[in-house]
Amino acid sequence: MRTQVGIVGAGPAGLLLSHLLHLAGISSIVIDTRSREAIETTIRAGVLEQGTVDLMVETGLGNRLKREGFNHQGFELRFGGKGHRINVQALTGGRIITVYAQHEVLKDLIHARLAAGADIRFGVSQTSVHGITDEHPLIHFIDECGQPQQIRCDYIAGCDGFFGVCRQAIPEPIREEYFRVYPFGWFGILCNAPASSNELIYARHELGFALISTRSAQVQRMYFQCDPDQRPDAWSDDRIWAELQTRTAGDGFMLKEGPIFQKNVVAMRSFVCETMRHGRLFLAGDAAHIVPPTGAKGLNLAVNDIFILARALASSYATDSTELLDLYPATALRRIWRAQHFSWWMTTLLHRFEDATPFDRKRQLAELELVTHSISAATTLAENYAGTPLG
Ligand code: DHB
User: Fold this and answer.
1) Which atom of ligand 1 is nearest to the CA of 186?
2) What CATH number is associated with residue 162?
3) Which residues have CB under 8 Å from 355's CB, separation 6+?
4) pLDDT score, position 73
5) Domain limits at 204?
6) Considering the entire predicted model, what is its pTM?
7) Which residues make Cβ contacts (< 8 Å) with residue 272, sequence separation at least 6?
8) Atom 7 of ligand 1 has which residue's CA nearest to it?
């Protein structure tokens, strides 16, 4: 097979790249080890920045998002038994966030790509990339029917996530990896219940962090800080509700409870791979960086990588100059490190650290007082939360 850009991974990064390249008249083939069903049903995060929503709308992906997404003008920080609203819209000159689950974005992308005749190979195995410093690199894989296949391309986009093969193809002396692992995880649930609040609640409690989010009028998403190797089935529903009620209590607030139909534990780590390019291989999304989920930057960062990469690839075909492609890692990494800082900061602001001293806990509360009472501190939080324009 021959294509211009071979894309490894049909997650948000890979599919969005294929979509944007198609709009620029550039061909691509996307492969993924997972089935279409697995991609469309795996529960991930659900908060889209203004820039992500704008890009989706401008490129024809916004119909269902506009109908079914929830616009949130702000969110609540809850500590010391009281809620404090951060008015994101007012603090950022009109930017808002939209709650719309990642797998819904994926469904919209797959639908748009297939409607445009895209070649997406689901359920492949044994993917490997070859000749990435040659003029025409190759992707090898075994297709769904067990047949060995080869894609010859001009460029390869490694959008295959943290555990993918593409990053490993960059030789170690060239690749520098920055890691931070947090000593806790998030216990996530999905339940059938009405919303308990109009906006998301990020709660800091002596027992640990809790987050109240939503998926629809009838389905709610909630998380609480837990042991990192917690087994999801170790917690009964009653114990989960007691923990969530305690961590969010105050001012007479009560969570509306309902049947829990999914439990999972989310790992918390920060990771950046520098560089994001070797020869004709470009990394994007989780293949190159992971943020802890606090603040929901992961998907939005992948979208920013792809916005930059698609523009750079289009420019290289249109002008024969690789200037923008050469700038891709540096351009993408600026926002990646800014989001790394924000996600780390919001995590440390709201979580319980076992080794925290009484001084550390007072300092954490003082910081929460600052961001909820100082306009300039609240503005910094709101700007980072809503996200700056893409690029
Ligand atoms: C959700 C996840 C997040 O990490 C966050 O900061 C807000 C919401 C969610 O899954 O709804």
Assistant:
1) 4
2) 3.50.50.60
3) none
4) 98
5) 182-268+352-386
6) 0.97
7) 177, 178, 288, 289, 333, 336, 337, 340
8) 296
